[in-house]
Amino acid sequence: MAAAKTPATEPAEEKKATAPKMDVKSMNLAQKFVELRRACPEIIKKQHSDGVKYKFAKIFDVYELLAPAMNEWGVDWDIVKEVATRHHENGDAKFYDSFIQHTRNGDRVVWVYEADITLRWINVDNPEETLEITLHALGTNDGGPDKAKGSAWTYCLKYYLFEKFNIDQGEDDPDNSDHSSDAPPAGQNGRQNAPQPQGGGNGQPRQQSARNGSQSSQRGTGLSDAQLNRLYKKAEACGMTKEATDNRIREKYNHDNPADLTRAQYDEICASLDAAAAKKKEEQQNAE
Prior knowledge:
Helix 1 crosses helix 2 (59-73) and helix 4 (225-237) runs parallel beside helix 6. The chain is α+β, with helices and mostly antiparallel strands. It is built from six helices and seven strands; from the N terminus they run ααββββββαβααα. It is elongated and about 70 Å long. Helices cover 33% and strands 19% of the residues. Strands 1, 4, 5, 6 and 7 form a five-stranded antiparallel β-sheet that branches.
């Protein structure tokens, strides 16, 4: 008589371990920043103007993703301080400067705004927990000092948020190309092509640096030879040698190798050299 077959025992279904959900109100800022980063993985660039052929992200594209996530996870921020980095001879704060730019269409006044601004992050569920970050804002515009300040703050905050939350822009930044041999488009001040035109022929630094914030995710890639050559040409135009430029980079950014500059730092020093060269040229013309 055949022995009865014992039915095979089905393997027990493995239970996947899941991370326990944390109470939002008990989370600290660092934990909430992680959730904000998850909520903003990338931004799809758009072509915002028929006059600008390439696509780019505006600060409003960042806010569109970030604001709902900040509301959900209880995070807020505000600008709490604005400190001038330059001063008049009498010691008064100097936020604005200007120079005359000579173009094929005539002379124009270009305004320069520069300051350190302090951004304060706040844990809404525990308002006593805050984090302050100092950012360096630098912007130019030929539409007036107010527009120069707007340009500086917009770029400063935009690129800080890109770096802070490692937001992927999807495509290469159009400003990564070396345009040192290109003629500046009409209406700009000849410093750099700004991927965020605001009308009125404004020119402004492409991006700003976060002095005490997250470092650029592009840090490991380094600057290209073309970008370094462009930087040294700008330095030469305002009377600085290669050695003096390297020393300035070492003192200000703590990089022994200029190729290790982040894009934000590279753009900042290029804009600063442009302003110095333009001022030097103006002084020479006035002396003639």
